[in-house]
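Anyone? Bumping this.
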Amino acid sequence: DTGVSQDPRHKITKRGQNVTFRCDPISEHNRLYWYRQTLGQGPEFLTYFQNEAQLEKSRLLSDRFSAERPKGSFSTLEIQRTEQGDSAMYLCASSTPGRTEAFFGQGTRLTVV
Amino acid sequence: GESVGLHLPTLSVQEGDNSIINCAYSNSASDYFIWYKQESGKGPQFIIDIRSNMDKRQGQRVTVLLNKTVKHLSLQIAATQPGDSAVYFCAENGTGRRALTFGSGTRLQVQP
């Protein structure tokens, strides 16, 4: 499978715990995006990487959220001190220079109880 | 501000009919538009895109129409099949913006 891969697919955590998600983009794609999607809504942009550089962060990305892409390949999204409002689908997408369309992974469904 | 919205939250069609899903946008600077299909529990899947220098683009069974005058685009699906049942999102982008802005989606239900 050469598509965008996300892990885990589902995560249930207690409020206050930290969680970390991983995204492996399509191998030749140097651009990587994280989005958040709540039920019945379209994805909302969180952050963007070009290679290892985090070039843009949405105001949705509070100080409890941090994303990294240390070697310009896979990326991680960490949420500290999770709150019930963090429950959502976290989507990763990647794209290649010169092409605007982004290809999405299957997402990580986070449930905070 | 910029916004992308959809006219109808749910569209129900008969199998074999053509479907038309509409989308309005408000940002005059938007120059790239894209349609995604999202099935339950899955990530959005690219369907078709169009740039603002075009007003029509066709794919396999799908056509996207762009009317920049009224800031409207539509997705037409020919001979709709049960496998087309999903939520469809339009999204847009413009110069200087790296990320897509999505609308809230239209659920397409195909009746056998």
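Late reply, but here is one note on the structure posted above: The interface with chain B takes residues 4, 6, 31, 33, 35, 40-45, 48, 55-56, 58, 91, 93, 100-107, 109 of chain A (CB under 8 Å).
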